[in-house]
Amino acid sequence: MVWPNRPASSRHPLQPATATPMPVHAPHLLPAPPKPHCHAAALRFTVAASAATPAPRKAVIVGGGLAGLAAATHLTSLSVPFTLVEASDRLGGRVATDVVDGYRLDRGFQIFLTAYPECRRVLDFPALRLRPFYPGALVFAGAGEPFYLLSDPFRLPLRSLSAVLSPVGTLPDKVLVGLTRLRAAATPDDAILSAPETTTAAHLLRLGFSPSIVERFLRPFLAGIFFDPALDTSSRLFELVFKRLALGDNALPEEGIGAIASQLAARLPAGSVRLSSRAAAIDPSGGVTLDTGETIPGELGVIVAVEQPEAEKLLPQLSSMIPEKPKKKSERSTVCLYFSADRALVQDPILLLNGSGKGIVNNMFFATNVAPSYAPPGKVLVSVSLVGSFAGRDDAELADEVVRELGGWFGAGEVASWTHLRTYRIGFAQPDQTPPTTPAGRDPRVGDGLYVCGDHWCSATFDGALVSGRRAAEALAKDRGLPS
């Protein structure tokens, strides 16, 4: 859901806190064992033997986000040696969790969909200890009105009866939601990915949804997924995500969304990762040159697994390989604010949407209702998401406005005691997914020995990143005649 270079984070100046990144349990981050003592004769023999044995040919992976980790784990499974270079001091990219005063803060609003097929193939779900959301949402329709519940009629038919007469959409809308769900669940992925393509907004209109349910429910719900309030996102991606929503749960790992990256990182060989190593130039025949001037050879090839803006800086030819699109004003940015509270004002593990058409809040939820481990015992974590960059407003100003706005949802007295923990500004939350798109993924080969992967090279989903990373590794192995 959320998909930044490294987002700047800040905190209300009156509320200091210390942050520690969620540990990445990977063997390559363990300290090196002490060097053994040896005699001079043995040392001469070791040096001579080493000189006679050529260093193994390696691949280089640039970027340690989900796509880079997927490529690395696949190369590991094929016993292909590699070096992964990551510009930051941690792995995971946008899929990260910080620990702040005992609170687990995901870097931006992110929800994991358990029906992603590549995720089910690659990840150990039981080890993630996934905690599901309620299958539906509460809609804030305006001050003085109750929250209206919209839930999955196939999973919770009795509770869904209360939504039939709600003003969020018409009765035909609610029937149409159920029919759309059934159709999406039964449609093969290949058919979705090859269907005629338009924008999501046009697609919803063509399906027959009324302006009421679009504005009050579908627009804020989908804006939280695609960071695109105009709903210019591809209809193919909408159908693909809607299918995953129909077939599985929305969930959070017990230790935060960063646990997904940690699980992949733990599988990598010792010594295969170099953190705080930023790539400055790429030459498949010469390897990867870091900003320090050091060159890392990549005799087997180079896989570029960084976000789209950085990928196009390193490989300018990429911009000519992607179909040109009309310029859109819609941003793919988001701001996520976290607050500490003493009690949850809603008891269900459910997403709350702003269906009023007013204010800056798009959605919010009480994270500890989903996973109590997100806060210290006896405390509640509140997550609030805005869509857009809000570049002209500082963190303290935004936090104050959010509290005032949510006071209109719950009552000013109920939110006045909330403590602002941290604000995450995700400038690049997702790549452009406006038509035309190729959500099935592009060929990872972009040159001799040069491969690209990432959610911008496939679909802007967890699954898209993992699939593209695997395909890049498979292509490299095949091109080099390595066993696959």
Automatic annotation (TrEMBL):
SUPFAM superfamilies: FAD/NAD(P)-binding domain. It comes from the Eukaryota. Residues 1-21 are annotated as: Disordered. Residues 66-476 form the Amine oxidase domain. InterPro entries: Amino_oxidase, FAD/NAD-bd_sf. Pfam families: Amino_oxidase (PF01593). GO terms for molecular function: flavin adenine dinucleotide binding. PANTHER family: AMINE OXIDASE. This is Amine oxidase domain-containing protein.
